[in-house]
Amino acid sequence: MTESTQTPKQIVEVLDQYIVGQSEAKKAVAVALRNRYRRMQLTKAMQDEISPKNLLMIGPTGVGKTEIARRLAKIVNAPFVKVEATKFTEVGYVGGDVESMVRDLVENAIQLEREDEYKNVHVDAEKQANNQLVKLLVPAKKKENRQNDMQNLMSMFTQMQNGKMPSANDDSNQEEVTDDIREKRMSTAEKLRAGLLENDEVEIEMDDPSQQLSGQNSMLNQMGIDLNDTLSGLMPKKKIKRTVPVSEARQILLRQASEELINKADLYHNAIVRAENTGIIFIDEIDKIAPGKSQNSGEVSREGVQRDILPIVEGSQVNTKYGPVNTDHVLFIGSGAFADSKPSDLIPELQGRFPIRVELNDLTKDDFVRILTEPTNSLTKQYIAMIGTDNIKVTFTIEAINKIAEIATDVNHNTDNIGARRLHTILEKLLEDILFEGPDMQMGEITITEKYVDNKVGKLAQNKDLSRYIL
């Protein structure tokens, strides 16, 4: 398990590369993250006493709430799950089980831990993959299987009696390697190392990916029960054959070899520890489960959900198929617009579990200008790069960018405020002709000016009826 050693200032500097403004929110999450590291440096007795200070982000849609949390998890390579509070319902009603968010977090932690383990066994796995590639490129004659079906069956029963997983004794993988085959394989291995066979095609046998998806039962998964592992142990794994280039075959074989080399027990244990100590659960739309103005006694999907979420946030043990997970030290970040309700409409116990409140500001015209120009891979850079694939060079003048920002501000003000997402709508409408005709133009240079923006989008924005439907 790795824990970030970055200071709050360094975390904010990275967030600034992708998210404009919202300095208060960035500062709060950076401090919360640094506190995770501080806690891990203390004695075990002190660690158990310190609980994470969960955050509640308040602000309209499209101002960066989700993006801050998502980028935060990437910075520290921490298990991260985003859930919608509205998809859960009270226990006993049809809908999602609140404990499923913890199980999703563990799955995410396992993926992160698996990638780390793959790096540790990469050298041995690559050696195995290359040896397997040589055998596939220069196949030898298979030895005949001299055991009959009855002998195989008896062998499997003997294995079961000895407490082992039954498997048929298959001699089909044993080869008769002649001197000629051996020489050819040595020559092929040299060519592989030199990278001369990367585009050659080879037939490989791999596990059927569709088999992993079949038979999944969402109800059982919500209860922490997974029948797939049990059934896969009883049933032979279905294999499929694919003909792929050597470069792709190496990656498939490398993954298979890595999976065989890693210790699954250690992997699951480390993933659970990682989820418990560095996991982040982002609960979006938390304002939608606050009763607000509608006070009905049968508010199943609101106060009931709050009561179900409460023990998870307070700290409880959740059973997963990999083992029990304790949520005492998981960081929870709540998020909501709170347009029709207030944080105080949440039940007091849940309010108390989100002690740090951060309000995110509405985006101004200047913010939109910065969003279009400053971040790494900003929106304008994305469109310039995409249109550039058609050999067309697009340039935005600063006046055009100011005009786009002005239109976005006006439309957000006059219709619904959807924050920075309004820029996606406007840019798509602005560049639709270029995106449509680009492949047929072969090459050229186009400059987007203020006048072009005004002609394409400005007139739409001025017409309130049209802007409601188009922008």
UniProtKB/TrEMBL annotation:
Clp ATPase C-terminal domain span: 363-462
UniProt-recorded Gene Ontology molecular function terms: ATP binding; ATP hydrolysis activity; peptidase activity
Cited InterPro entries: AAA+_ATPase, ATP-dep_Clp_protease_ClpX, ATPase_AAA_core, Clp_ATPase_C, HslU, P-loop_NTPase
UniProt keyword list: ATP-binding, Chaperone, Cytoplasm, Nucleotide-binding, Stress response
GO cellular component terms attached to this protein's record: HslUV protease complex
A biological process term (GO) from this entry: proteolysis involved in protein catabolic process
Domain AAA+ ATPase: 51-360
Domain of life: Bacteria
NCBIfam families (UniProt xref): hslU, PRK05201.1
Record family assignment: Belongs to the ClpX chaperone family. HslU subfamily.
PANTHER family in the cross-refs: ATP-DEPENDENT CLP PROTEASE ATP-BINDING SUBUNIT CLPX-LIKE, MITOCHONDRIAL-RELATED, ATP-DEPENDENT PROTEASE ATPASE SUBUNIT HSLU
Protein name, as recorded: Heat shock protein HslVU, ATPase subunit HslU
Organism: Lentilactobacillus diolivorans DSM 14421
Upper lineage: Bacteria, Bacillati, Bacillota, Bacilli, Lactobacillales
